[in-house]
Specification:
The chain is of the alpha/beta class. It folds into two domains: 209 residues, Alpha/Beta hydrolase fold, catalytic domain (Rossmann fold), CATH 3.40.50; 80 residues, Orthogonal Bundle (Arc Repressor Mutant, subunit A), CATH 1.10.10. Strands 1-2-4-3-5-6-7-8 form an eight-stranded mixed beta sheet, sandwiched between helices. Strand 7, helix 8 and strand 8 form a beta-alpha-beta unit. About 4% of the residues have low confidence. It holds the Pfam family GerE. InterPro entries: AB_hydrolase (IPR050471), AB_hydrolase_1 (IPR000073), AB_hydrolase_fold (IPR029058), Sig_transdc_resp-reg_C-effctor (IPR016032), Tscrpt_reg_LuxR_C (IPR000792), WH-like_DNA-bd_sf (IPR036388).
Length: 371
């Protein structure tokens, strides 16, 4: 087996979701932020050894700061978690974005991350500059009985064989994800399943993913969107991609000529993937003001001020500061870490050109004057 290239420097951080679950996330690369809404299986450290995933990590960081996380119950995030519902997963993404101190960013939804990314973008339209789906979907309701029977069979396979030393049962999932891979790549993905999570979590999280549905929100999204999907994907049908692209106004669908759910770096489809993604992420996006993105923050009668440069989260934190709350109290009220509150306040002061010990008082004074 060929030796692996050195792992680029990444910083691993932890934040807490609204229900207290610790979520591990990693930051690597430099440039505008690209948040990756994780797929089913991940491990922030182990992924760097991957002959299946490594080329994605390298590609994403060319010109971007990549923020990716292990979902609850997986990788370096808290294990033994029981709630894997859409609401809990949305809270995880919100916690990561806030802890990283991001105002606006591009969002890449991988596979089962689709419903979470859709719901997040619908809830926080001012923060998502561009939206990308890869091998993903909006929801999977009302499947035919044959597919339901297959899912029941896969559930039993996880229960019986996930933790076994041999990979015979896990190979079923590997063969669905990368049917045209080499044996080395198959073996690695077999092992990732065991390393990433336990059998009980794999079953529980998979059931919740099958139930997640955000399709009703698609028509309300107003963000530049790119949909990338393998034409022969056996995990998530290409029809799911058609549904995404048709449901979001202006979305563009790119079919990748591959049978692999995870396109490998030896396929022609990989060159198409990275060329399309690079071009899309470099397209200019018209800036949206706070008034355009969130009318609840600033009504149409408001006159533009320097406060309009602040994000809705920064304004929310300033409102709490105006009530006399200190940073710890604000963090508790908004289910954030104190460090995250401090980062948002620092960003707000910089935008308002305020410095020194009086910055907080001056910022609050401007807020109250505007009100």
């Amino acid at each position: 087996m060929a030796s692996q290239p050195p792992v680029p420097r990444q910083e691993i951080r932890f934040c807490r979701a609204p229900d207290g679950v610790r979520i591990a996330y990693a930051v690597h690369g430099s440039g505008p932020p690209l948040v990756v809404d994780s797929c089913w299986l991940s491990h922030l450290q182990y992924d760097w050894q991957s002959p299946v995933w490594r080329h994605y990590l390298d590609e994403w960081s060319r010109g971007h700061t990549v923020i990716r996380f292990d979902e609850r119950g997986h990788g370096l995030s808290d294990r033994g978690v029981t709630d894997h519902g859409l609401g809990a997963r949305l809270g995880d993404l919100e916690a990561v974005v806030d802890d990283a101190g991001l105002d606006t960013f591009d969002l890449l939804a991988m596979a089962q991350g689709g419903p979470v990314a859709i719901t997040y973008t619908h809830r926080h339209p001012e923060r998502v500059s561009r939206l990308v789906f890869y091998g993903s979907y909006s929801g999977q309701p009302d499947k035919d009985p044959g597919e339901a029977e297959m899912n029941d069979t896969l559930d039993r396979l996880i229960k019986v064989g996930w933790a076994r030393p041999d990979s015979a049962f896990r190979r079923v999932f590997t063969s669905l994800m990368i049917p045209e891979a080499t044996e080395e790549q198959h073996v690695w993905l077999d092992e990732l399943q065991r390393v990433a999570t336990d059998a009980d979590t794999a079953r529980a999280s998979r059931r919740e993913r099958l139930a997640a549905d955000a399709s009703a929100l698609l028509a309300e999204l107003d963000v530049p969107t790119l949909v990338l999907h393998s034409r022969g994907d056996r995990m998530n049908s290409f029809e799911e991609a058609r549904g995404l692209a048709a449901g979001i106004g202006g979305a563009r669908l790119v079919a990748l000529e591959s049978n692999n759910h995870i396109v490998l770096d030896t396929e022609p489809a990989w060159d198409v993937f990275r060329a399309e993604l690079r071009a899309f992420l470099q397209e200019p996006v018209a800036p949206r003001t706070v008034q355009q993105a969130d009318q609840s923050t600033s009504g149409p009668a408001d006159r533009p001020t320097d406060l309009d440069a602040l994000s809705p989260r920064e304004l929310e934190i300033l409102h709490h500061a105006a009530r006399g709350q200190d940073n710890d109290e604000i963090a508790a009220a908004l289910h954030l870490s104190t460090r995250t509150v401090e980062r948002h306040l620092s960003n707000a002061y910089a935008k308002l050109d305020l410095h020194g010990k009086s910055a907080r008082t001056a910022a609050v004074a401007r807020l109250l004057t505007r009100a």
